User: What shape does this take?
Amino acid sequence: MARNRHGGATLTAVVALALTGVTGLTGCSDDGSPSSVASKAASAVESLGSQAASSIASATAEAGRRLDEVKNGVDAKDAVKLGTPATDSAGRSTVEVTAHNTAGSAKSFAVQVEFKNTGGNLIDTVVVTVSDVPAGKSGTATARSNRKLSGGVKAEVGRALRY
Assistant: This one.
């Protein structure tokens, strides 16, 4: 599936650049009026926004599909904690996921991690599995964003299932 590489902060920068560029382009455009140039810039910005929204929708659908595949899962959101988001060597956002198993036998956890920008807007989501956590113990895994995310990134638990 195609992934868009434009995060929320990048999209904002593109919008600002496009709108700033309209002023400079209107005086030297071969295509006609300032409104024609502005219309083309707005169309380009709209296209980028649609691609970003499509990428987020795709990631959200995939996360939902993976969680729906879990058989006999019970809500375990309160048993899951996230570390502080970081950026790996490939430029993708990562966060450590810790799941505490309060059951009497070994269990696994499927955890949906939502990456959000500083404004609280969803910019990516992934599902990570914390496998075979012994009874009364905690297990860890690392969630990694589907693509590079720009700007400040926060991570939250969307859903968590113990099975």
